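Weekend entry, working from home. Most of the wet-lab plans are on hold until the incubator is repaired, so I used the time to fold the two sequences that have been sitting in the queue since the last round of cloning. Logging both here for the record. First:
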Amino acid sequence: MSLFAWLRPAAPPLDDALRQRLAGLPKAKPPGVCSLREQRWVVLDLETSGLNPNRDQVLSIGAVAIEDGAIDFAQQFERTLHRPEQKTNASVLIHGLGPSALAAGCDPAEALLELLEFIGDSPVLAFHAPFDQRMLARALKESLGHRLQLPFLDVAELAPMLNPDTVLREAGLDDWVTHFGLQVDERHHASADAQVTAELALILFSQARRQQLDSPLQLEQRLGGWRRRKAHHHGF
């Protein structure tokens, strides 16, 4: 056995039904040229045991679909994962996930596969998307032996790009929610955070259209230029 094979984590054992469902997932698509309204989006929020993507775990998942230019409340996804070994800490408690909730959670492999089926081939929106993307990628690899290939778009980047005159240093989700006057009944809960992120995304899509950005591809291209200018400004 080679050293690299020894270092590579073994693929988790999956039954035939799970393997067939994984094989039946649609292929991820690059950002398209359809209008923002025509595109189905999935807004994702993960609650985790901490902020270290190499060590911490996904504890709960919330997601909602945006379709036909509006939040579709008939398309919502929420799961708490079975994590009985997870120790209670401040990060866990802030999400309201006590030991009993984690012990009664869903099988991680089943929950994650159901999430992939819910997402389909839609692009994913998240606030601070790189973190959610890395956490989800690792969870999928460990529980399903599956490589995440879905395109992610970061709402935390879209907001300042589309609002260059708004000065909110290191702005978090709460800052943008307050800026746009959105009503939030609950925070630090996966499904609630996904919903408010979806509401924010719809405001940003409306702004994007007014700036002649009306497709996922145009948004992605503008973001690329915005990132390059930002890096140049900071001397990277």
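Second, folded right after the first finished:
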Amino acid sequence: MTESEVLTSVQNGVGRITLNRPKALNALNRVMCEIMTAALLTWRDNSSVRSVLIDHAGERGFCAGGDIRMIAESGAGNAVEAKAFFLTEYRLNHLMVVYPKPIVAVMDGIVMGGGVGISDPAPFRIVTERTLYAMPETGIGLFPDVGGGWFLPRMPGETGIWLALTGARIKAPDCLPLEVGTHFIPAEQIEAFKVALIQSDETPGAVVARFAADPGTSPLDPYRAVIDRCFAFDTVEAIFAALENERTDWAQGQLKMLRTKSPQSLKVSLRQMRAGARMTTFAEVMAMEFALGGRIVQTHDFQEGVRSVIVDKDNDPHWDPATLAGVTEAMLDAFFAPLPADEAWTPLA
């Protein structure tokens, strides 16, 4: 009998969700999202469940994203399956954001894309020295979804915009100051922490505090002022110009990285960030991202990005439009247009 890709149980009042697809770095598919949603709904009104723990099998990845191959194959056709996945995944993300009980996410390993969507909503986000966090979507012609339009622009300064556009990868010493994680616990202590969380009658916050340690100095700290200065603009062209004017090796490195990304994705992602910053509820952001996602997966750039990075692995995508100038405001307006009421995203009842 094949073991489930998500394991759920209740242990001493703690609802435990374990992602159990380690060979795929626990990448999410629709069934996994459905299992997680069902468990959370069952526990929500169960007074014997006090808190929720989300962890994962294997040491390499908490969750490396969603099922990108399926999404691309669906997007190459009518995108029905991709939209069904987004509907389910985004409803799970929203459910976690509004969940009435404390959630602890143990982000011990790779945390990308969909993994961000099921960890960022948790009030307690535990990182270790093995944590590697990124939203790399602009490199495959996509955009940082799963609530990226809510979480990223609310990070300190312009760091979330920098992460969204560059796809930069950060580790534990940067995760805490950027508010990606709330606490650092050494990997060798994680199992003991989970045992204590389950066996103790203390609140999750009290248990976390007992195990929390110092992750060390932030490598990004010397560049925070540059990030805030250069990524504060509302056009990608202005961000490029600001980085060019810095004339430092670090700024030029960021510019070089940005020039490898899909121009369309860069402009879509920046508009998403600025629009999300103005929205007052997470549900508004989910509705925007659902409309956007269903359209973007059918574009040349997403199909080409997946081919280049995931299928052929030649890392030589041919973007179309090939330049920022080729991505017009009219194109962006079409991507961001609201869906008809009968097609729009809605949260769970």
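Plan for Monday: verify the second prediction. Strands lie at 6-11, 14-19, 51-56, 61-63, 103-107, 110-112, 124-127, 132-134, 183-184.
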